[in-house]
């Protein structure tokens, strides 16, 4: 266990911060949480970080990017390697899921919903199809598995559940704006085309 609490620069609503905080809890690690107001650029001031949150400071060892922080915490402080297996093939599956979330699933979520929620832009059918395609890939990778990378919880589950929670929350926000009539109904039509092929 660390000699002094690990500092985490964070904000409660930030998805990658939530993933790091849950990983620390699974590991039984205490974090010293430092609220970092990115809305007023606090993370770019010299006394803070000059990069994105979450950022971790473990007795002077500074790391950012949530998935790298999560892997480090398990490597450094996990009682065993179950959250991030050392076996090369098992680890490769976890790494694949982490990269899939970073580069595809979360990124497609972001491309669909952020322009609507923060810039008032129109619903983009093409971006929605891309997200649905990624969700279908996630479904396939869950086939026959209890968790996204195998039979037990790993950091890949934690990072991916945060993305799915965002999608769920966004669904609620978009309910009055035709989420069911436009998105769900359209997705069902799309699925029916796919089944016919
Ligand atoms: N891929 C990064 C994303 C980090 C990120 O974009 N964090 C946001 C908050 S959710 C941030 O710090 N934004 C401020 C900025 O981009 O200037 C991770 O997983 O840690």
TrEMBL record:
It holds the Pfam family GST_N_3. Residues 87-197 form the GST C-terminal domain. One of its GO terms (biological process) is glutathione metabolic process. InterPro entries: Glutathione-S-Trfase_C-like, Glutathione-S-Trfase_C_sf, Glutathione_S-Trfase, Glutathione_S-Trfase_N, GST_C, Thioredoxin-like_sf. The keyword Phosphoprotein does not apply. PROSITE patterns: GST_CTER, GST_NTER. GO terms for molecular function: glutathione transferase activity. Residues 4-81 form the GST N-terminal domain. It comes from the Eukaryota. Keywords: Transferase. CDD domains: GST_C_Delta_Epsilon, GST_N_Delta_Epsilon. Homodimer. This is Glutathione S-transferase.
């Amino acid at each position: 266990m660390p000699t002094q609490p690990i500092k985490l620069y964070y904000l409660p609503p930030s998805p990658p911060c939530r993933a790091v905080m849950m990983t620390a809890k699974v590991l039984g690690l205490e974090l010293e949480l430092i609220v970092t107001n990115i809305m007023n650029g606090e993370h770019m001031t010299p006394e803070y970080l000059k990069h994105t949150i979450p950022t971790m400071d473990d007795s002077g060892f500074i790391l950012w990017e949530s998935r790298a922080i999560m892997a480090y915490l398990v490597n450094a402080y996990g009682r065993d390697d179950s959250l991030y297996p050392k076996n090369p093939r098992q680890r490769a599956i976890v790494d694949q899921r982490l990269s899939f979330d970073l580069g595809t699933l979360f990124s497609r979520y972001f491309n669909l919903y952020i322009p609507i929620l923060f810039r008032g832009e129109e619903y983009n059918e093409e971006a929605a199809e891309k997200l649905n395609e990624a969700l279908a890939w996630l479904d396939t990778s869950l086939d026959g598995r209890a968790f996204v990378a195998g039979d037990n919880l790993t950091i890949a589950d934690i990072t991916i559940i945060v993305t799915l929670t965002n999608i769920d929350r966004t669904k609620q926000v978009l309910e009055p704006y035709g989420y069911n009539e436009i998105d769900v109904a359209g997705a069902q039509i799309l699925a029916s085309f796919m089944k016919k092929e």
